[in-house]
Specification:
With about 350 residues, the protein is of the alpha/beta class. The chain contains 12 helices and 10 strands.
């Protein structure tokens, strides 16, 4: 991986500031000062902000199987590749490398929509050998990122799961989940749906830098309240925990409980592949005074490396600092009352779907 270069300036509304080359590229190009002051002129004049581009994809399968021992679900589904929320720490950024796109700006501006997702899911759920299991929606990229308001692919999936009484859980940072309450609330009443809202911090300024196009923290709390009041089981994810950056875990948990969340979980920041240089770039741009300290603590939790993919430690880290975060979380959740009851979804109500467009005769 080549050394990163501090970007000239942050891009409004974007998490990444550069078109970071992906790990499969053979040719890497860097800005070079030729002595004529062109770099400074370009920074002063500015360039057109990168626009969001949506590409459509017809997929052959939509359900991903998971056998990782540190993940509490064995089946997941993501309607989109890439995510306009632009969270700089997103562990899914390197997946854009397989598309020959940058995990940097491309990941948050060149989005792939799986336009036939509901049709393919119907076929998969209708197979004779299919057995229902909890489907986690939006685990890699947010299923309610801004383009969902127009494309409504997530809604088409939930409508099918509602038709078949198939249990599911949603993970999101978006208030747009509220637009599907007409489907989610009746499913929740039958113990078939739960929603987990990520609230990384209550600091709006920090959130704008970390997660530039996700809902503001106060808006996510309002979404938790709206869901809870509609009878939907709601959990809060206080993830990722980043040393010396996100320092208000206890306050987030208290606010989420007050809003109606009753279960909680966390992870520590993960920096696989290209996420590490992107995150270092972001630190140098936004928090240069503490960048070295932050990375030192992250490496302390990762056995001296930027990232360690070991199943036993990749979600929570290891070492003294990881233990401190764990203790803070456990003490806060025990004191507040989180995780007293497990959200258990019903697997026995599932009925296979009919042929698309054909109603039941009975």
């Amino acid at each position: 991986m080549p050394d990163f270069h501090i970007p000239l300036h942050a891009l409004k509304g974007r998490g990444a500031a550069t078109q970071m080359p992906h790990r499969f590229e053979r040719d890497v190009r860097d800005a070079f000062d030729d002595g004529w002051g062109t770099l400074e002129e370009g920074a002063a004049e500015g360039t057109a902000p990168p626009q969001t581009e949506v590409r459509f994809e017809d997929v052959k399968s939509v359900l991903s199987e998971n056998d990782s021992p540190d993940i509490p679900f064995d089946r997941s589904l993501n309607p989109y590749r890439g995510c306009e929320h632009g969270c700089i720490y997103c562990f899914a950024r390197p997946t854009h490398s397989y598309l020959n796109l940058s995990p940097g700006l491309d990941f948050e501006t060149k989005l792939i929509a799986k336009r036939n997702i509901a049709e393919v899911l119907r076929a998969e759920l209708g197979r004779k050998a299919y057995r229902p299991s909890h489907i986690a929606i939006g685990t890699a990229t947010d299923c309610y990122q801004p383009i969902e308001r127009e494309l409504r692919l997530t809604r088409s999936v939930i409508a099918l799961l509602s038709e078949t009484n198939h249990p599911f859980g949603i993970v999101t940072k978006s208030s747009a989940v509220e637009q599907d309450l007409d489907l989610i609330a009746p499913m929740a009443a039958k113990r078939l749906a739960a929603v987990y809202v990520t609230v990384t911090t209550l600091d709006a300024e920090l959130a704008r830098k970390l997660e530039p196009r996700a809902a503001a923290p106060h808006r996510r709390l309002r979404t938790i309240r709206t869901l809870a009041e509609a009878g939907v089981p709601v959990g809060v994810s206080v993830a990722p925990q980043i040393p010396f950056i996100t320092d208000d875990m206890e306050q987030v948990l208290e606010a989420a409980w007050e809003a109606g969340a009753r279960c909680a979980f966390y992870t520590v920041v993960r920096l696989p592949w290209e996420v590490a240089p992107l995150f270092k770039e972001w630190l140098e741009l936004h928090y240069p005074d503490r960048a070295a300290r932050v990375m030192a603590r992250i490496r302390e939790m990762r056995g001296g490396k930027d990232y360690d993919a070991d199943f036993a430690t990749r979600m929570k880290g290891s070492g003294l600092w990881a233990d401190l975060i764990r203790q803070r979380f456990e003490k806060a959740t025990n004191r507040i009352g989180f995780n007293r009851q497990r959200i258990a979804l019903d697997l026995g109500a599932f009925r296979p779907p009919g042929v698309a467009g054909q109603g039941s005769l009975f």
